[in-house]
């Protein structure tokens, strides 16, 4: 395995006297120096408001900002740059779709379909839309190993369905959903497919055209970029039918006291001053991922995930949720130490400098399905090392013995 730790300055930090072992990438990733540098370089050399000024500095800021739009479009293989616009986060992107397409398309008696593994960000906006519209929210069930139940998907999606909203990769179970098959199913019934790509884009190449997603949402901060910047991709033909949910500067053509014309897409959907430095940081993060290459990144993550999953499966007194085989397992493993509260386990690990998440992971209905109040979750990135996973497993054994004895 290639060691990329030196790219991430935070990894020299000591936590409770131990070296930081960061295993909460599903919540947010750490930032390489190149991303940190790109943000400070922007403020030091190019800071001005975008799209407005005629002066050189404004043109420089605009060029850098718009170059990232091209970069993102190429990264997710969008057919054109206009299909990509910047938001605050995955949550913001998904709410955007609910408030625009959802408001326009969903009527009383219609259906919105989600899966039982959704993050609250891809559940609550649809639930609230369904409540507002007197529509029905339907939930695709899961197989006992946590994978999507295709028979249930076929039963749930009907000619009344307007929207199918699904995560590409679950932030708890680590499973990958059959996105292009779901797109086909949705389209056969005249519905659109909205994909929550938050847990996918940093770990595998994404081709929105091959997936045939109508909308695809993700966050910069889970892909080595900064917080506060997200992306929404939408099919251009759909975007053209939508009324912007926000009005103000940047998104207009001409304004009189009586009327306003709209700017072209995508500016139409980016009202106000955007998160310019965040977008530039996201561009640096994409360049960093491309420099490593998904082949390397995936090989390293799969090796680390196999070590993590097998270590947990072989540990007595530990319950692992989701698929038990590493094939097609995302770099996220949820587990519990039987008889112990997940918070106690995470606190015990933290005392040794190991940072994992404990809780419901913003997926409370999924916790109900798993019949647990919460789980511990360890999630790796390519810059973790086999030695870190060994250390995590050794400390977990000690913590488990402490609590179980
Ligand atoms: N969906 C999934 C699957 C996620 O894992 C997350 C983040 N935990 C989100 C949506 C929300 O992302 P953000 O908080 O960046 O909006």
TrEMBL record:
The keyword Transferase applies. This is cysteine desulfurase. CDD domains: SufS_like. PANTHER family: CYSTEINE DESULFURASE (PTHR43586), CYSTEINE DESULFURASE 1, CHLOROPLASTIC (PTHR43586:SF8). Residues 21-392 form the Aminotransferase class V domain. Keywords: Pyridoxal phosphate, Transferase. Belongs to the class-V pyridoxal-phosphate-dependent aminotransferase family. Csd subfamily. Its cofactor is pyridoxal 5'-phosphate. It catalyses: (sulfur carrier)-H + L-cysteine = (sulfur carrier)-SH + L-alanine. Its EC number is 2.8.1.7. InterPro entries: Aminotrans_V_dom, Cys_dSase_SufS, PyrdxlP-dep_Trfase, PyrdxlP-dep_Trfase_major, PyrdxlP-dep_Trfase_small. GO terms for molecular function: cysteine desulfurase activity. The keyword Transferase applies. The lineage of its organism: Bacteria, Bacillati, Bacillota, Bacilli, Lactobacillales. Transmembrane segments: none annotated. Pfam families: Aminotran_5.
